[in-house]
Amino acid sequence: MATTSExxxxxxxxxxxxxxxxxxxxLFAERGLAVTLNDIAHHADVGVGTVYRRFPDxxxxxxxxxxERVHELLDLAEQSLECQDAWQGLVExxxxxxxxxxxxxxxxxxxxxxxxxxxxxxxxRERIFPIVSALLVRAREEGRVRAxxxxxxxxxxxWMVGAILDYSRExxxxxWRRYLHVLLRGLSAEATxxxxxxxxxxxxxxxxxxxxxxxxxxx
Amino acid sequence: MATTSExxxxxxxxxxxxxxxxxxxxLFAERGLAVTLNDIAHHADVGVGTVYRRFPDxxxxxxxxxxERVHELLDLAEQSLECQDAWQGLVExxxxxxxxxxxxxxxxxxxxxxxxxxxxxxxxRERIFPIVSALLVRAREEGRVRAxxxxxxxxxxxWMVGAILDYSRExxxxxWRRYLHVLLRGLSAEATxxxxxxxxxxxxxxxxxxxxxxxxxxx
DNA sequence: CGAAAGTGGATAACGACTATCGACTTCAGC
DNA sequence: GCTGAAGTCGATAGTCGTTATCCACTTTCG
Lengths: 219, 219
What we know:
The first copy, chain A, is mainly α. Chain A is built from ten helices and no strands.
């Protein structure tokens, strides 16, 4: 079970493999997982056949690509658990996680969407959940979070902020911070007035452009 | 410019028109705007051709169907503005609006998604915005809402709770109430601890089922 | 009763994507 | 430098789901 033994790829083949991976990373990040293998091939300056030869199944490509990125998230969770102040840790985790998602549409879809295939990635997600739950429980015990907040609420929070990401990514990539803040305030035990909301709300014309940009597809 | 004059439809034609409208209402509500005219035809026990004859363009059908429903929303907004307590009015509006959306996927998509075509519906949406903005401004003046909250935040709130709707509709249709509550608490001037969160958070097994149900499509 | 209006649903036209194949190019080792 | 194994390219065939048309047939209404 060598980690990455297989056969030693020929030099040009290896170069193409990298090109494909790089192109895929770029396209997934900016356009989401829906990009076709054709798109990726063209973007990598490589024939479609080459892509199919190397990654017969798109899920294999996704797995290969995102394994690393997803582990970043796992590290983040573990590191946040170290934090002496559990509330602080929770905030750090959510901010970090959403920051990654803001920078990579594909990652967001992988994390919050359906797992289908992509075994490795799905597995990591399952390992993150208990860690973050522990973080939440601790923050609750420390009296920083409402007593009736539960782990499921953290998933919901990511869904909600994820929606902001989808709608506003083009117009105001940083808008999600504002609503993460609102949400955290809503979940905290004593919601103080102090710290102002980060980043301004969308103005009327920005709202229009979001609405008509078809951020949410339809038919 | 008679409102609905045209030609007086033949009796059977009129009956079919109604059937189509009814079937469309049902399917849009439970499956969203993406249902095909074929689906609608079959569900209405009518030939596909009949549907196309009556509504050459799907947008026309949507317009015809949702004009009324969207006006309900406009009424709701106006009525909420009457409320002496602006905060109360705001809550009523958001709850009412989201309740409608929870019951009708199509309506939700129409309100929060792209307007493309569907002139009438889009117009009403534009009339609602200033009303709700006024409501917000008043609630802010009354000191119930944080001073830095803006009208755009209400749109964002609907996007966020709308995401909860999309994810959890099958598993727990009422879950959105919990997160509207959290959000409102986050936006309110003094977030008191009192009133407990309505409806429980999703448990681990429910989360799994949401994740794997592919609530959010991908490829 | 007959003309006008309306109907059904097989099927053509489409568009987007997935996947294959085989003539051709490149590499690595002798 | 030659050779054959490894690798490449991209036109194109196959699928799938949807939109839209057409016309022989049925229904309505005066």
